Amino acid sequence: MKKTMYATGLVVAATLVAGTANADKWSDQFPHIKNTGDIAGECSYESMSKKDYSGRTLTINTHAVPVIGEPTALHGEQFSKLTGATVNITHTPAGDLYAKAMVPFQTGQAPYDIVFGFSNFIRDWKQYLEPVPAKYVNMRQMKDVTKSHIDVASWDGQMIQFPIDGDRHYLKYRKDVIDNPEFQKKYKADTGRELRVPRTWKEYGQIAAYFNAQDWDNDGELEYGAAEVMAKDILGSAAFFSRSAAYSKNPNTPGGFYFDLETMTPLINNPGFVEALTDWVEATKYVPPGGINFSLGDEINSFGGGQALFSFSWDDAFVKAMEDDSPIKNKVGVAPLPGADRVWNRVSGKWDEGYNQAPFIVWGWAAGVAKKSDDHDMAFDYLCFFANDANHQADIAIGRFGVNPFKKSDFVPEIYVERQGWDQEIAEEYSQTLLDMEEKSTNRVFPLRVAGTSQFTEAVATGTAKALAGQLSPQEALDEVAAEWTKIVKRVGADNVRKAYSAGVALEDNLN
Amino acid sequence: MNFKHKHIFLLPGLLTLLGILIFPIIFTVRLSLSSWDSFYPGLDFIGLENYVRLFTDDLRFWESFARLSFLSVTTVFLQYVIGFSLALMVWEDIKFQRFFRVLFLIPMMSTPVIMTVIWRTVFHESLGPVNDFFSLFDMAPPWLSNEYLSLVTVITVEVWQWTPFMFLLMLAGLLSLPKEPFLAASIDGAGPIRKFVYVTFPLMAPISIGAIIIRLIEASKIMDTVYVLTSGGPGTSTETSSYYIFIKGLREFQMGYSAALSFTYLIIMIISLTVIANVLVKIFIKKA
Amino acid sequence: MTFIYRALKYGFVSVWSMFVIAPFLWALSTSFKDFNSVTGSATYIPWVDFEPSLEGWKVLVRSPAQGGVNIVEPYFNSIFVTCSASLISIILGTLAAYALSRFTFKAGFIKNNDITFFFISQRIMPPVVLSIPFFIMLGFLGLLDSLFGLILVYIVLLMPIAVWIMVDFFNKVPREIDETALIDGCNPYQAFYKVVLPNSIPGLIVAGLFCMIFGWTDFFFAFILTFTEVQLLPVAIVALNSSITPWWSLSASALVSVAPLIVVAFLVERYLSKGNLSGALK
Q1: May I ask the CATH architecture of the domain C71-239?
Q2: Residue A168 — pLDDT band, cuts 50, 70, 90?
């Protein structure tokens, strides 16, 4: 079964790569897809041109320009030309997307037909969104989407959000250091350990500290160990969970990562998380100056500009590093997130020795159609068009668009080698690592998607920030977070949270 | 004075304001008695539960209030002293007088939300000019990452942005002072310092008090600076009440609780301002 | 003695001037940078430290489909909304302030000072919580995403300032002036318009300026209460603030949004100085 899927993926990809044969009237009119031409499908340029939405208006709220904002506008323009619809778009900064959508929704209004946001809003806004109709779910285009991204877009088996982007956390490292034989010799001589892609967070910390505050690429500037998203916001809390997954997601104790599913007691202050936070506080010693305040943008600039040895959040830093004008193009590698040498067993109350690794299937950009919109048909067609094969292939090649791979046919190395000038070795490493994470991993952590999710993540953001700033010790900080979580659960209602959380646990424990 | 005239002057403004505000005010009070959040939208009634919670279980709110008091008193004090001094200096004869007068107005014309981004890059610890300067002394002060320095940074930006406000009010006040007392003082042979202490300062007392009060009100709402510069960090060291209310309200979407916080904040501010106003009157007017 | 005083004076004024200008110069320099010039260390002078680029400025006139944020229309929207709301606020506010300064009100235990305080207390409330009720209210009136709806909301924000400042300035104008006018045969409106008002020009100018500033720079209400039809300048500019902060275009937009108010500052300064001369008018 897997073999046929992989084969189909290859065939699709081969068609995409051989694309120049398809350069056609559509790519003449729309230079955006000039590399592949229009690719046949229910939502291709050809199909959309047959639809007539003239006289109708589509209103969209999306993120700021350019990340997701620019492709939304670009595809809106294209859609408008093909179908005659008028597309009105408003751009909102990331932190305010939630409010901008929820305030109208909660007062019973739907000024936007389509809302963009982060996929972990799903529990809070699913009652205001129209489920994706079966006809779209069954399209070949949709079947090509990897399993974890279908899962992220769905709730209780129903697809609520339309997959338009893929996201995950993975480790990025400077190949010119890690794979450098001279440095390897020196490192071994100085520390007695191997210089290699770190397998655990402890190893990551050791290597980062060793190479911190030195100029190892001789550009006259100091480089540092790691660029991490430590800012006190929702993205920072995602970075924390990436670090904690290996210490706390124990495949032998199903039934909860954030909470004990039965009692709804928070697990956030158990020794696994505390260990991860201790590592993170340690990391403040090997980040660039000001690193403790790094937002995602700062991290992208820092790693992408060549300032750091490691980075581990979303794709963007890697894509930035591999752009044509980047000083470190083809000098960066990809690996799964480090794991840990022991994982906490909450049932036995002891550590289980042995290597453990768990990818954090982190949230990413998502789009939904408002239930109260009058234009469901047009809205879904737009989203389907946005994510159609031709557009998607063009989008992932443009770093600033923020659109990252999420289809099986995306993970074919040749695409990156030919279209984006990546080294073959790096392209293969990239495709294999990501594909394994998306399709094969069984011990995974999903973001917390329950009622009032933002309250929980805010508590984590505040608590971890306090620890990073040295205001509290990691244990104290997480104890505070746990206390806050208990209060929130009480306020929202334990049963309500449990009901929602069990959906996530089912995904994590692969019960589906 | 005729009964009708005074109402014709007052009522158009007052009624317009009330008309637009009446619904939001009542709604906010009602909202504070509900538990509206992202999971329970709608106005259910939970009585004073929100208020009980914020008085008994919300240390963070009171901490933010303490921080707020510190920040607003410090910034307003600095703005008053600097603004008044600048106003005095460009009120008398000085070269390039008109240039300075215009220049000193400009910072408050910038949009705080946008200008603070510029400040963020100025104080950026690896890439900003401030630390470039300090690197000459081998220092790299953590302007945005240290709990005390971040307060200094916030104060600096606030003083830069809002001193012009004080400056303008004081200047306008100075320009509309009557000339007689000054002529009288000159005849009496008073030097500049005595003129200031016995003539200028007392005459400017009412304006000073008004300016300080309104600046305190505005400073307490400090949002944009904290939001863009530090996000209330590091940790919670620059978190002010209005930032906390913002987080609870629009990030966590606990609207009901946020309304209760706002209302409490409003009452406390009204009480404090009344007290402060009385104190200021005693200080300023007593001197006359 | 006077020499030291003068030296201190010029010194202080110069230092403060540099402090005022510095961020703007930095913004100017940054607006000509691009990504690579920013990620190394601080760079200052174009052509000497880095290669200048017009990208930051071009972004402001491109449409979002091309990676820009067209700020031309929001610019004019902001001008219109700010001026209208300020004008209405000044008119209504000045009238109300005159009443509060000259007449005595007593409705139960509510007296003048209480009414004045009521006006200014509107500025105390943090705007966050007002977002939902204003949203509902404007939605009910069909005024969401409209210029008129924004103007209504801004009147609430700006009128209190006008009242607060004008009360102070009216209080400084001696009552005898009014009384003389009335004795001379004016009715109260003429007394106000012809005699008291000209004596309070500095106050009017200051109040007007503050109204315009607070209206022009508001972000929050414009953000919550508009969608796609009407965009105000601060909201349009913040639309650039995605995961990768484009310091160069934000710098350019900061300069662009300050520009009109600088023009206003010139006008204000001129009228302030003129107003001085008529200060002793009787």
Answers
A1: Orthogonal Bundle (1.10)
A2: confident
Task: Mark yes or no for CB contact A233/B231 under 8 Å.
Answer: yes
- pLDDT tens digit string along C186-228? 777 777 887 777 777 878 888 999 999 988 888 888 888 888 8
Min distance C97 CA to chain B CA atoms (Å): 7
Is 50 exceeded by the pLDDT of residue A1? Answer: no
Ramachandran quadrant class, A255 (left: phi over 0; alpha: psi -120 to 50; beta: rest): left
Distance CA C271, CA C282 (A): 19
Find the helix packing angle between B149-175 and C147-172, rounded to 10°. 60
Average pLDDT over residues A186-208: 91
CB contact under 8 A, C269 and B105: yes
Q: How far apart are CA B252 and CA A92, in angstroms?
A: 17
pLDDT of A49 above 60: yes
CA distance B129 to chain C (A): 6
* Domain locations in chain C as residue ranges: 71-239
Interface ipTM: 0.84
Q: Does C139 reach chain A within 8 Å, measured CB to CB? A: yes
- Residues 6 or more apart whose CB falls under 8 angstroms from that of C95 comprise B9, B10, B12, B13
Q: Which of B110, B50, B63 is nearest to B260 (CA)?
A: B50
Segment B14-53, tens digit of pLDDT:
888 888 888 888 888 888 888 888 777 777 888 888 898 8
**B131 chain-A contacts, CB cut-off 8 A:** 289
Give A-chain residues touching B230 at CB under 8 angstroms.
293
Residue C2: CB atoms within 10 A of its CB come to 9
Q: How many CB pairs under 8 A join A and B?
A: 96
Domain boundaries, chain A: 18-163+363-404
Q: At the fourth CATH level, which superfamily is domain B49-286?
A: MetI-like (1.10.3720.10)
- Contact status, residue A466 vs residue B236, Cβ threshold 8 Å: yes
pLDDT of B69 higher than 80: yes
**Which of A59-73, A368-382, B60-74, C41-55 bottoms out in mean pLDDT, i.e. has the lowest?**
C41-55
Q: What is the mean pLDDT of residues B104-133?
A: 85
CB A111 within 8 A of CB A104: yes
* B215: closest CA of chain C, how far (Å): 11
Please tell me the pTM assigned to this model: 0.84
Say if CB C90 and CB C162 are below 8 A apart. Answer: yes
Out of A95, A291, A458, the one facing B252 most closely (by C-beta) is A458
Integer distance in angstroms from the first to the last C-alpha of chain C? 38
**Nearest C-alpha neighbor of A162 from the set A388, A344, A348:** A388
pLDDT tens digit string along C85-112? 999 999 999 988 888 888 777 777 777 7
Which residue in B has a C-alpha nearest to residue C271's C-alpha?
A: B172
How far CA B154 is from CA of A19, A44, A511, B70, C227, in Å, comes to 55, 52, 50, 12, 32
Residue in chain C lying closest to B6 (CA): C99
Averaged over A57-84, what is the pLDDT?
A: 90
Domain boundaries, chain B: 49-286
Indicate the fold that domain A18-163+363-404 takes in CATH.
D-Maltodextrin-Binding Protein; domain 2 (3.40.190)
Tell which C residues from 38 to 77 touch B, by Cβ distance under 8 Å.
Answer: 38-42, 44
Shortest CA gap A336–chain B (Å): 29
Phi, psi dihedrals of residue B208, rounded to the nearest 5°:
-60, -50
Convert the pLDDT of each residue in C34-78 to its tens digit. 776 666 566 677 666 677 778 878 888 777 777 777 788 888 999
Chain A residue numbers with beta carbons less than 8 Å from the beta carbon of B254 are 455
Interchain contact, B13 vs C92, CB within 8 Å: yes
Identity of the amino acid at B15: L
Cα separation, A261 vs A509, whole angstroms: 12
Q: What angle do CA A502, A169, A91 make, to 5 degrees?
A: 90
